[in-house]
Amino acid sequence: MSEFLAIDSIVTGTLSDYRILGMVGRGGMGAVYRVMRLADHTVWALKEMRPTEEMRPVEDADQRRLFLQEAELLRTLSHPNLPAVSEIFVHDGRPCIVMEFVAGQTLDERIRVANAALAAPQVISVCIQVARVLHYMHTRTPAIIYRDVKPSNIMLRADRVIKLIDFGVARTYKRRQAKDTVAMGSAGYAPPEQYGKGQTDSRSDVYGLGATLLHLLTNITPVPLHQPTVGSIKRLNVTASSDLELVIIKSMEHDPDRRYQTAAEMADALIACLDEAYVDPTIGVTPPAIIPAGHTDGIQVCAGCGHVNRGDSRFCSSCGMPLGANEPRSVLLIVASPRGSHRVRLDRFPARIGRRDAAQRLYPEIDLADYDRGVASRNHALIIEQDGEHLLEDLASLNGTALNGTNVPSHQPQRLRPGDRIRIGEVEIEFRWE
């Protein structure tokens, strides 16, 4: 098998060329890269299928089918908790999907980092979103059954919005079919009917969400086909109420007729478990702009947020930025960490990244004091402007600086491009033009 795509290499798609910014992850069947869409300088994820040399032709064909099935399913959907798909094409004989880049952690990563059960209010808020996006999928025509609800398939962003990922085993519901042709899913999260004993439907995803709740609240991987009992969850997590425990028990009934009959019903039950009014974090979230093939005339793409506007627009309808400027006016930094997020606009350089220290009268332009756990040095790094470019320089910081996942050598300025991500401890800073 050929080498993975190199950083800064260009991949040609149908709508645009893409510059490889870095690898997000890889597995036995492919790789995911963070890329810049050169048509509008927005950041996307490129998922590439890469079958192994040992794979038989029939296996290759089956995996290619699943890969393209995921792309085509997502392309037909539009929901704030689903990654948007821009285009599908073939590069060097391998299928590729360009989809929304989701910055954050999977719930599986989050619980492994915490090495502890998560607090019930946080888990409920996350799983309400999961239930609602599942209901959206279940109410399409034909219905789409996800079939693999589990923590590793749920991404959580810094703004608390979740994204459901990996649609490789999702399928459309066949009303008159007695059982699924192929049993798929993940042990512990799959209901009895998903083990070849019947056809999966929306209630199968309800079971998977219940098992996900169980895992997040106990930090214990669910035992296959084991339904929790009254008191078993509360003994492991004091933040879990009796009502929440009953929601999980009902959702994990072996008989589908005894579960919640819709994901919307389960979402309502979860909302009832909250002590305070539920605030939907997806409200006001703007989806990424997707440029349709053959429709690039008569539009303007905002250089700041990537939103597609009408050709006669003077201002971006999404972020309000004036349109038509050939050059970026200023630098916008999106600072995010588990402790919160904020935006910093830079008009003067050099701009210092660090932590404020009143005793030393040190007040950096990008102050991370409220966003990290002491990882950032007081004088950690600089963003400088030189010959029309912006550069990142690590100032021999104690814990180092990473750019797009690669550690930056001290006092060796590195070029910054829109979409680049600076990592300092838990804090991630996205570099943009505005």
Description:
The protein has 434 residues and is of the alpha+beta class. The chain has three domains: 10-100, 2-Layer Sandwich (Phosphorylase Kinase, domain 1); 105-271, Transferase(Phosphotransferase) domain 1 (Transferase(Phosphotransferase), domain 1, Orthogonal Bundle), CATH 1.10.510.10; 327-433, Tumour Suppressor Smad4, CATH 2.60.200. It contains six helices and 24 strands. It has helices at residues 57-75, 107-114, 120-138, 202-218, 242-251, 263-271; strands at residues 10-12, 17-26, 30-37, 42-49, 85-91, 94-100, 105-106, 144-145, 154-156, 162-164, 171-172, 299-301, 308-310, 331-337, 340-346, 351-354, 366-367, 381-386, 389-394, 402-403, 406-407, 414-416, 421-424, 427-433. Strands 1-2-3-4-6-5 form a six-stranded antiparallel beta sheet, with helices on one face. A hairpin with a 2-residue loop joins β23 (421-424) and β24 (427-433). α3 packs antiparallel against α4 (202-218), α3 runs antiparallel to α6 and α4 crosses α5 (242-251). It is globular and about 65 Å long. The model is unreliable at 172-183 (pLDDT under 50).
